[in-house]
């Protein structure tokens, strides 16, 4: 449900832009945690998928291609659609200064310091970085992969001392990204997957409750402190990333041991989360811009309409855009014999 948290956050942000009578509460800022949960889940899934790959260059290449196919085609669809609105009807959207000055970098998800055409695409750059790391991990025998992940963690810890604290002086954005504390949330997910794969049962019910309590407590601390997460990334990792890892372990282990059933609507939204994530900011902006003239409608009603319509379009985009593009792009590389987790896990 990470994508719903992010949607709630962005809905609040845009409501404040378009409505003087905004009603969504300030505590909607907890939606930031959706990204942290998303990163932890990504680390978990990548280990589950990569675990079954043999230590060959062909397998690593296939893994990397399948991850590319998961990210780029659907992203490019929403990138080009946003660009079309900018070129044909720029008044319909709000564009930040510099948002359309580095289109090549935005298109290929190359790290830069400037705003991106698709605002949420910054997280995809971390995903691509993580995919690259895991394609290298696959090249070594399974028993040594944990060692390579530890080396990666050490690199990030040491590198931050020289680069992260003064990024504009000492390193390019790409290097800065490789050392960012948020990358540790992928490692949290990888650790959860390792425990899960080797069936080390660690009292999942207790850990689930502990993770839930810590996450709620983190929400309270964050709301009361008002800390800027962009300037306090380690604070964010500990506040949201660690509880998310505990919560994830509790969920997956309870599902395996005790048959925990996930509601069908959660599965549907989870499968479509990537399309919902990429589309919602554009849709929020368009819908709020069109509905702004209807000031007679209560702000709460407008927020509900915008949220519901955007969620619905995201679900349809998954069915009619993302899935066909995914099948087409993966089909270009042959069968998915080294992708045992398949599309659903990806």
Which SSEs are present, and which pair or pack?
Blueprint: H1 2-18, H2 33-51, H3 57-88, H4 103-108, H5 122-138, H6 145-164, H7 167-170, H8 173-178, H9 183-197, H10 204-225, H11 233-258, H12 264-271, H13 273-291, H14 299-331, H15 342-345
Helix pairs in contact: 1-2, 1-13, 1-14, 2-5, 2-9, 2-11, 3-5, 3-13, 3-14, 9-11, 10-11, 13-14
Structure description:
It is a single chain. This protein is mainly alpha-helical and 346 residues long. It has one domain. The chain contains 15 helices and no strands. It has helices at residues 2-18, 33-51, 57-88, 103-108, 122-138, 145-164, 167-170, 173-178, 183-197, 204-225, 233-258, 264-271, 273-291, 299-331, 342-345. α1 (2-18) runs parallel beside α13 and α2 (33-51) runs parallel beside α5 (122-138). The two termini are 15 Å apart. 34% of the residues are buried. The model is unreliable at 335-346 (pLDDT under 50).
